[in-house]
Amino acid sequence: MIALIIRRSYQSVVVMLVVALLAFTMFRYVGDPVSMMVGQDTSLEQREAMRVSLGLKDPVPVQFARFVMNTAQGEFGISYQLGRPVAEILSERVPATLELSLVAALFAMLVGIPMGVYTALHPQKWLSKAFLTISLVGISLPTFLIGILLILFFGVLLNWLPTFGRGEVVMLGGWSTGFLSGSGVKSLLMPAFTLGMFQLTLIMRLVRSEMMEVLLTDYIKFARARGLSNKAVNFGHALKNTLVPVITITGLQIGNIVAFATITESVFQWPGVGLMFIQAIGLVDIPIMSAYLVLVALFFVIINLIVDILYHVVDPRLRVDGSGAHG
Amino acid sequence: MKFKTAVTGLALGAALAVSATAAVQAKELKFAFQGTLTSWDPYRLNETFTLGTMGNVYEGLIHRKPNMVIEPGLAVSWEIMEPTRWRFHLRKGVKFHNGNDFNADDVVFSATRVRAEGSDLKTRISADTKAIKVDDYTVDFVSDNPNPIIFSEWGTWNIIDKEWATANNAVTPQNVGGTEENYLTRHANGTGPFIMVSHEAGVKTTFKPNPNYWGKKQHNLTSVTYTPIGQDATRVAALLSGQVNMAYPVPVQDQARVNAASNASVLIGPELRTIFIGMDQFRDELLHSSVKGKNPLKDKRVREAVFHAIDIKAIQKKVMRNLSEPSSLMIAPSLTPISKDHYPRRAFDPAKSKSLLAAAGYPNGFEIGLDCPNDRYVNDEAICTAASAMLAKVGIKVKLLAQPKAKFFPKVLAPNLDYSMYLLGWTPGSLEAGNVLRDLFYCPRASKGEALWAKESRNKVGKGKFNIGGYCNPALDALTDKILSETNMKMRDEMITKAMGITVDDAAYVPLHQQALAWGVAKGVHVKQRGDNVFDWRYVMID
């Protein structure tokens, strides 16, 4: 297991370097940060001087090396626009995104898995067909459209839920949470639904198809022949064996949820890192953009690692293979 | 004993009742704007929304009324002692939010800080101007050359408390490329009618009224909350759902919906910004064009042909849905002494356009590029698309490149100047014609006799730095120099009228229109709209 983690860590470093290179290349095409930092009266000479002091005039390899060195030390610099250390801004904004992603992921799993099981067990029932139809909507409508439709219906028309923001937040140490206030929870509903909808349909369809496949296998037939109860067969044997691919996909989807949160966050003006990223793109705030990209990449890498480890826990065959490789 | 408790109880009850009525009468202004307020340092960014919002917390020596007319701010009066010496008499008894007194030292300090390294407002006071303290409430401004409008941009030159800035180690604005946060980035201490309570950039900023404000209270607010909402649909929804009671801008396509709603309406007014098309007149060979070896736009007839090809009425009606005012000048009518019809617009006349092109030697027209932002002005890309189609009808085939402002500005502005035609908007910072003549029309070169926009000295261009088309008329430059230092207002106005006539005659630009401002305001909220899109809360009344 430790060998696996070490091996994976090496690969992760390579992945992070590639992300850094891609991010860095991208910044050369997003526009000129200086023209976003000054007003119309600033002279051309001053603009040029700013480019020099920001290091934008250095040769590209020098800039990249500096970028990697600083990033490796966790030094993301000062935001061009906000004039504050990026790490500080990130730590203020991360709780909003993580809370939203967590609720969205839980919603997707807790609703998606039972729906998948139900549609697999009762494929002919009308409720199953209804679930499948709804899931088609969830998978084909773009996130921002779902968000805006929800806002119009529950926010503007019915006036039940807040249309933007996080509501009241409570500070717990350095962590701002919306779970502890009424308006915070209410504010969370629509964004979490919007963000989780796509994952929900994905999980549901995955569970359904895997489960239907498993239900046809011999050991399930044998279990039924032994006279085990439906519950024991469906949940004890069938569902358990369905879960391996579901864990993989769900794990990877958690990364996606955080990444997709940019769209949901900008539709609901949710003050997380995704919204911060969108705002930074508009203003060509390179330190914030690079920190965000590195953070998301790191997040993906860690999730992948966890998924790999979970595999070994869930699937005994992999453990045998792993030790075989060493032997 | 019992009696005493009863009295205390009564008093407590009364106190509760009072606070309860106060809560009932809470007048909360909650507004949303599309952009972000990044830093609270008053000298960090010269941008309308930033400075306009700060103008509720900080104050300058002068103040602009809702109709843009100048009134006394922190200065009660001012006078010219001699052509190069202005004397400002400061208001007495004014306190900053932290309780410090406002006096001449703060003005002198602010005059230094606003021109310090890292300030984006250096042009508020010219480099040669000295701020001299005469006594605690009198300051003289002495410059090398006479400046008749020295204070025209001081409505947004906010005065900072010297003691406070010094104590917090913020004597200069944050340096670009620096590694430390400046204290003023997240703290504010002005003399204005509102106090900044909390600020999370990109999330929310809250304010409360200043109970010790020196001026007459013209609002009835108990708190102000600003939320940046970038998405148009979300911003409009926030207004319609009642979560904010003021939101701007309202996009053109949503205005009918807001007006149809029972709880809000759109407040429309003319903006001071002029939208125009600029043309490359300095290169010997046009970029992005089929014409090789020469530059057709150097020929006045070709520029006139472009002008005559534009059907401004169609743009006004179809693209802007009547929310624009066609313009013949490069400045809004309210900012000049020139009457609106003094210089009529060149008429829409495709036949004339074609004959002008033929006379200039392009009977079959030519190909040309047009650069355009798509997230800067109201329907900017749609205007460019419409203009391209109109130009195509007279034979000028336009390759349109519309992109976000972060990409557009560095491409088109100096030093790159990579365009052949471009769409841009301009509001003169000083809100008068001198700025337009200096920045948009002055020959762009570092010294007389040098080539226009000469590559090696491009970054040294001072006057004319936004004359990216490279229009140049030495006679106009001479007149502009006179205007910039003429202290007799009547003579100045006459010269401005004459100078604007020259620019029209030369077809230096194709001015299109002044776009309209659109503020979404909830029923029961009364605001005063300013032509430069500044939201001044001191006039907000809530029923």
Which SSEs are present, and which pair or pack?
The complex is a heterodimer of chains A (327) and B (543).
Chain A: H1 2-27, H2 33-37, H3 44-53, H4 60-72, H5 86-121, H6 126-140, H7 143-157, E1 170-172, E2 175-177, H8 182-215, H9 218-225, H10 230-267, H11 273-283, H12 286-314, H13 316-326
Antiparallel strand pairs in A: 1-2
Helix pairs in contact in A: 1-12, 5-6, 5-8, 5-10, 6-8, 7-8, 8-10, 10-11, 10-12, 11-12, 12-13
Chain B: H1 2-24, E1 28-33, H2 48-54, E2 62-64, E3 70-72, E4 75-82, E5 85-90, H3 104-113, E6 130-135, E7 138-142, H4 162-167, E8 194-200, E9 204-209, E10 223-228, H5 232-240, E11 246-248, H6 255-260, E12 264-279, H7 300-309, H8 312-319, E13 324-326, H9 350-359, E14 366-373, H10 380-393, E15 396-403, H11 405-412, E16 421-426, H12 433-441, H13 474-485, H14 489-505, E17 510-522, E18 525-526, E19 541-542
Parallel strand pairs in B: 1-10, 1-11, 14-15, 14-16
Antiparallel strand pairs in B: 2-3, 4-5, 5-7, 6-7, 8-9, 9-10, 11-17, 12-16, 12-17, 13-17, 18-19
Can you give a write-up of this model?
The complex is a heterodimer of chains A (327) and B (543). Chain A is globular and about 85 Å long. Mean pLDDT of chain A is 85; it is low at 321-327. Chain A has 327 residues and is mostly helical. In chain A, helix 11 runs antiparallel to helix 12. Chain A has helices at 2-27, 33-37, 44-53, 60-72, 86-121, 126-140, 143-157, 182-215, 218-225, 230-267, 273-283, 286-314, 316-326, and strands at residues 170-172, 175-177. A two-stranded antiparallel ribbon of chain A has the order 1-2. By secondary structure, chain B is an alpha+beta fold. Chain B has helices at 2-24, 48-54, 104-113, 162-167, 232-240, 255-260, 300-309, 312-319, 350-359, 380-393, 405-412, 433-441, 474-485, 489-505, and strands at residues 28-33, 62-64, 70-72, 75-82, 85-90, 130-135, 138-142, 194-200, 204-209, 223-228, 246-248, 264-279, 324-326, 366-373, 396-403, 421-426, 510-522, 525-526, 541-542. In chain B, strands 1, 8, 9, 10, 11, 12, 13, 14, 15, 16 and 17 form an eleven-stranded mixed sheet that branches. Chain B starts with a helix and ends with a strand. The interface between A and B is large, with 53 and 61 residues.
